[in-house]
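**Backbone geometry record:**
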Amino acid sequence: MKGWQEPKDGKRIYLITDNSRMDGFNDHIKSDDMERLYITYGESKVNLGIHYYRNYLYSSNLVGICRLKSRENEILYDVEGNELLIKVIPRFNVKVVELLNYIREDDEFDRYMAPQTVSNRQKEKDIESIDRNEIFYFFENENPLKVDDSTSNENSIITVTVFLILLRLLCKRPLMGRMVKKEENLTGKVKGKIVIEKNISKNAMHGRNDRFYCQFLRFSDNIIENQILKAALKKAKRFLVDYFANSVDKDNNYANMISYCSNVLKHVSDIQCSGNICNGLRFSGCYTYYKPVIIMAKMVLDDISIESTGDISTTGYIIPYAISMEKLFEIYVRAYLKKNGVASYKNKSKTGIRLEKFDDKRDIFIEDEELQNPGRYISGSIKPDLILTDQESGETVVFDVKYKDYTNGNSRNDRLQLLAYSMMLNANNVGIILPAQTDVEIFDARRINSMENRDIKYHQVLLGMMKDNPVIANYIKENMFEKKD
């Protein structure tokens, strides 16, 4: 049921679907607070990106749950003193957890979670901080929220997923270490300083004058920070095994991430701890990349409980979060195509249809972008969502993925975007893939009114959660590439 829900546990939630008009929103907000309410005019995730459109307040394409905030970053309350929250759910027939489950075997899974770069000359970036991830965003500095079980479970799988991705990236780098004190009874040599009292009791009193009980410094990565990561990793694995009914032990990205990280951390000591152990840890210098991983580890440790019986449960407390359905739907489409006969860019076969690399960019100009000339006004790069290439003919098909309802008018930006893709990639077939409400739908191709000496066609398809239905993938492969005689 949309709109304001009855208050519970001192909280009142406004429930709405994404990209929808927020009717009745001001019913429980004090008039003064409506004037102070944070409304975004850009891409801010505060209040899940609510904004004005044609004088009405609308939700954005962000789903999740968070506290309502003022422009001064103050929490808003209703007249009864209940904390005000907003929860946005997907309007199409897709669920966040289902999408994550579907894409977890994709060979570009970790790249989807890394920040997309703007310039074609920048190197691919790993996740440097939580807020750089373009799919998931956590309000890490806020207090946890008490939520119902379904919301808690959804949040937990998201938290675990992001933690594992960050942890694997961290494990590809040198583990953090420091000089630690070590005591050892050495034979025939002295290292560091002799611990007089222990040397007497262990050596001199037993006539072992050839031995010296010494204390010395040694560099070690078996430190509390890495022990925390290992503890969170073990909890994450137990949760995933329970959540996915043991399928995490099979060959998929979750299993691969867990196996890789477990191997890197196998020499680190096991500890039992809660998220509070992370309080006060500081990271600077060459180990700043630890900070976002420790933050996610704290969320995992606080959110997931292992009972004495071995059962897994969630605490019901979550960190407020936001998810970009636009980005998540885009990578779902990529995973769907690969699962239905379209080869990955990693496939080196010289036959068949291949999906080009995620986040692939093309410079606008052939000349060096650094040249000082008037062309810099439109210089830069373009980045189509989906580029499909016939390995034999070299023919290209370009699709843009839009998380929109096509019945709500048309978009000038989308038109210009597709026409630019067609021109720059010499594509005779371009199109848009949109989410389906219920059924799959393929529209008749339309010829584009172009003066170029070639036929250019526009295709529009609607795609839902099609786990075993290759109809869209087959349509693309069979109708958009010229058949050789």
